[in-house]
């Protein structure tokens, strides 16, 4: 038996061609070998008695167009993420969770070490393709299109995955004809260019000078400007290389150090240095996500920065700011005007702004998501009622309808209490154990923690984000409990008992921890995890943690 789909006849059968019909004809043939060569589809059955009842039977089909070739599978929608690290990996993971395929594109010269910077919250992230930037933009674009086509992918978006990927992402997305901030504003992430653009837009900007060498212009600025001044790399992230200099000699020395000796935290060398007036005031962050120049504020933060370990701007934490406060009412519209001035119409942004006596003034606008490994995600979801910058970014590039439904700014008041806490080290040495970290995980306000510190790690006193001892998120409906937990963390820091170094006396460290914890005895009923799992009652958890840390040091936790 053969299934013969017209209009093609079977020459060896002698049957008539039914070219003008839309029926499926079922034929039986004694000679199956010749006929099957000419049929597009054949089901061969032996010519035996049970099949005779079907001989010459015609089965009517529902009229459908006929195709001689099988339908091709649709191409899989795919997003290119340029230089993904830190929060960029979290964005990629969310894209993957929504069913899209992923191409990782590494910018030329990006640090091999930084390529491994994948946060815990992005566990399970899988790249379908990993490509490297080519010598020219056209070659890079052709590589993306060629590799995508050969793997059944349709590139629907191209975004940056971190500060080091902003320029290539803008150029590549524009070249591919995708949603893009484009290249009309040349080098928009250049801090000097940013200040010039916002000044042209009539916004408060910083007095400044920049140079690829110590030029007469730089020298003149440093001699005439009031001190202190801020000297920093023109292209950096976080507090990388940023220093407040109190004299001409100190400013010149740091300027030359950055040009000749400093290695950028994002990889590469510092090619140009910026010297700016020192802005007096409190520094804030405005995180936005944009689509077609509609800027939605997803969170406002206040930086907790303090002078410590000889550095002027050490991060101690990020504190959420209610969107209806007087500060937020000034910051939000200013940040949106900055984004317009810089031509940032699409995607996430992370703007650092100081409120001075003259009003808000931009420190820098990062045309990418808030960093910190995206550890703030669960906190933001709890505060806002279910979304954060990562979610909103994916909505903006892939789901316009959902993005349009997002609030213009976060709900007020917040639906919970919490903050990000940056851990500060006061020690130098090799880590033997981390008892303080284990204690923090048992606090009732603890949510999550990211830290590179492990037994065997080298630690130094914290002077910037690159040398911090980790970040944790704390959150609690009870503001008093939250405050006590943060106070305990700070006491463990200043007592230098977050971790034990190899050359330190274990028993002495245990006594220090005990003294710190005894200060919290008045809060014994609230410290710990929820009461059913408190430090005092959760014996199993306590023993498990003791096995991973120095016993004598951790046993002091029983005295909370």
TrEMBL record:
For this protein, the record's Pfam families field holds: ATP-grasp_3
Q: Where is the ATP-grasp domain?
A: 195-398
A GO molecular function assigned to this protein is: ligase activity
InterPro entries in alphabetical order: ATP-dep_AA_Ligase (IPR052032), ATP-grasp (IPR011761), ATP-grasp_PylC-type (IPR003806)
Statement: the UniProt record of this protein carries the keyword Ligase = yes
Statement: the UniProt record of this protein carries the keyword Transmembrane: no
Region listing for Disordered, in residue ranges: 523-542
Q: Which UniProt keywords apply?
A: ATP-binding, Ligase, Nucleotide-binding
Q: Which PANTHER family match?
A: ATP-GRASP ENZYME FSQD, FUMIPYRROLE BIOSYNTHESIS PROTEIN C
Q: What is this protein called?
A: Inherit from NOG: acetyl-CoA carboxylase biotin carboxylase
Taxonomic source organism: Seminavis robusta
């Amino acid at each position: 038996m053969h299934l013969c789909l017209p209009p093609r006849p079977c020459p060896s059968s002698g049957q008539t061609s039914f070219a003008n019909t839309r029926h499926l004809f079922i034929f039986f043939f004694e000679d199956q070998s010749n006929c099957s060569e000419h049929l597009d589809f054949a089901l061969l059955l032996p010519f035996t008695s049970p099949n005779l009842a079907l001989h010459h039977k015609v089965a009517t089909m529902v009229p459908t167009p006929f195709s001689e070739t099988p339908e091709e599978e649709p191409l899989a929608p795919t997003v290119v993420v340029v230089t993904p690290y830190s929060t960029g990996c979290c964005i990629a993971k969310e894209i993957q969770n929504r069913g899209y395929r992923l191409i990782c594109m590494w910018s030329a010269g990006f640090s091999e070490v930084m390529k491994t910077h994948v946060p815990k919250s992005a566990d399970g992230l899988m790249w379908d393709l990993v490509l490297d930037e080519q010598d020219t933009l056209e070659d890079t674009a052709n590589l993306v299109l060629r590799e995508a086509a050969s793997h059944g992918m349709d590139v629907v978006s191209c975004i940056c995955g971190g500060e080091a990927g902003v320029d290539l992402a803008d150029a590549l997305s524009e070249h591919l004809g995708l949603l893009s901030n484009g290249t009309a504003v040349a080098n928009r992430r250049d801090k000097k260019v940013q200040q010039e653009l916002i000044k042209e837009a009539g916004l408060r900007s910083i007095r400044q000078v920049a140079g690829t060498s110590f030029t007469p212009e730089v020298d003149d600025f440093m001699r005439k400007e009031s001190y202190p001044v801020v000297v920093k790399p023109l292209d950096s992230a976080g507090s990388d290389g940023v220093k407040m200099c109190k004299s001409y000699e100190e400013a010149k020395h740091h300027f030359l150090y950055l040009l000749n000796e400093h290695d950028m935290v994002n990889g590469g060398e510092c090619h140009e240095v910026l010297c700016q007036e020192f802005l007096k005031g409190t520094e804030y962050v405005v995180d936005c996500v944009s689509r077609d120049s509609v800027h939605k504020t997803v969170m406002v933060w206040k930086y907790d920065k303090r002078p410590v370990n000889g550095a002027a701007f050490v991060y101690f934490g990020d504190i959420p700011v209610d969107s209806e406060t007087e500060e937020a009412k000034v910051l939000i519209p200013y940040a949106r005007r900055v984004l317009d001035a810089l031509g940032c119409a699409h995607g996430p942004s992370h703007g650092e702004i100081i409120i001075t006596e003259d009003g808000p003034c931009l420190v820098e606008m990062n045309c990418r998501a808030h960093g910190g490994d995206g550890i703030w995600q669960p906190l933001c979801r709890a505060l806002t009622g279910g979304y954060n910058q990562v979610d909103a970014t994916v909505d903006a590039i892939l789901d316009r309808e959902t993005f349009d439904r997002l609030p213009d700014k976060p709900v007020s008041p917040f639906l919970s209490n919490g903050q990000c806490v940056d851990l500060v080290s006061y020690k130098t040495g090799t880590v033997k154990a981390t008892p303080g970290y284990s204690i923090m995980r048992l606090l009732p306000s603890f949510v999550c923690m990211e830290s590179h510190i492990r037994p065997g790690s080298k630690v130094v006193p914290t002077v910037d984000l690159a040398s911090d001892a980790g970040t944790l998120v704390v959150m609690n409906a009870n503001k008093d409990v939250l405050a006590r937990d943060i106070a305990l963390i700070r006491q463990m820091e200043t007592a230098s008992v977050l971790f034990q170094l190899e050359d330190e006396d274990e028993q002495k460290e245990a006594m220090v921890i005990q003294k710190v914890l005894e200060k919290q005895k008045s809060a014994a009923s609230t410290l710990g995890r929820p009461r059913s799992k408190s430090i005092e009652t959760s014996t199993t958890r306590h023993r498990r943690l003791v096995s991973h840390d120095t016993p004598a040091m951790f046993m002091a936790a029983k005295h909370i």
